[in-house]
Amino acid sequence: MSQPAFPGRLTPGDPDLSERQRRIFTALVEVHRTTARPVGSEVLAQQGDIAVSSASVRAELSELESMGLLERMHSSAGRVPTAHGYELYVRRLLTPAVLDRSIVAEVEHALGRSVHDVRHLLDEASRILSSLTHQLGLALAVSLSGEVLSGLDLSPLHERRVLLVLNLGEGTLRTLVLELETPLERDELEEVSGVLRERLLGRTLAEVRERLQRDPELVRKSAVRIVSAAAARSWEQPLETPLYRAGAMHIAEHPEFSRSLGPILRAVEGGSPLDRLLVNGVEGQVCARVGLDEDVALAGCSLVAYPLPGRVRGAVGVLGPLRMNYSLAFAVVDAVGARVTEILES
What we know:
Elements: H1 19-35, H2 41-45, H3 54-66, E1 70-72, E2 79-81, H4 83-93, H5 101-112, H6 118-133, E3 136-141, E4 151-158, E5 161-167, E6 173-179, H7 186-200, H8 205-214, H9 222-234, E7 244-246, H10 248-253, H11 261-270, H12 274-279, E8 287-290, E9 301-307, E10 314-321, H13 326-345
Antiparallel strand pairs: 1-2, 3-7, 3-10, 4-5, 5-6, 8-9, 9-10
Helix pairs in contact: 1-3, 5-6, 5-13, 6-13
């Protein structure tokens, strides 16, 4: 199963590259992104920040290949990054772009027209994502009613405000800010957390929502009753939308998809597993999933997604080839996701 990759968040299995290897690997990623072709040592040796011979570059490329970061398409051809190589690139070498003010204004203008209609807002989000990244723009809101609660925590935010964190497994977190009718001390919140875990863990979110309103065990103690009532009030009926998508022509423009365009578009049209992959992550943080092995049609694709924090459970993101411009994609998806969140929470 594809795993989310976050800039600056390394994993224990990531290789430790030398400075020369980092420069050569980054240059190869950038050249391949623009040409969509395997990259040879002679081309890399001509790059401005690689002041070594073609022979030295070839030696480093062989080492990077042995690490699983590069592969050859043919015995005599140059090399291209592997999915593992792109994951390392995102985690260790990626710096999200700084968006020009005109792009930020374009995002604001596109989304500002939909402040009163969530569905139209998400549809517009998919369109502006596609327009700015030249990838397939995606957006949706989902109901997680069938997801099973595996963890629960309460953290004080203010005298009468508490953060309820629901862990749904696979790194998926759902958060709710609760407004309490009566302030509670930290030790009371810890006691309430224990009671809620005992009564709610292992149940679907639909069952959790029902129990918060009707379980007699959650109203016997005043502190538990206060938190349960606040959670029931904050937990609005979930909104669910189709998977909005825009920019299929951009997928068609990528040469690596010339023979697989039909299966990719059918997978996108079907919604799953993209709908689940979009929202399964850390709310409010952009991540990349490289090589979507959940569906054979999407194995050559990467998904950059921003799970929305707040009252509407959903996500925005872009789908493109493994060699997509991750720097731009991360910046645009973050900007659009943050603005969508602001509108939904206002």
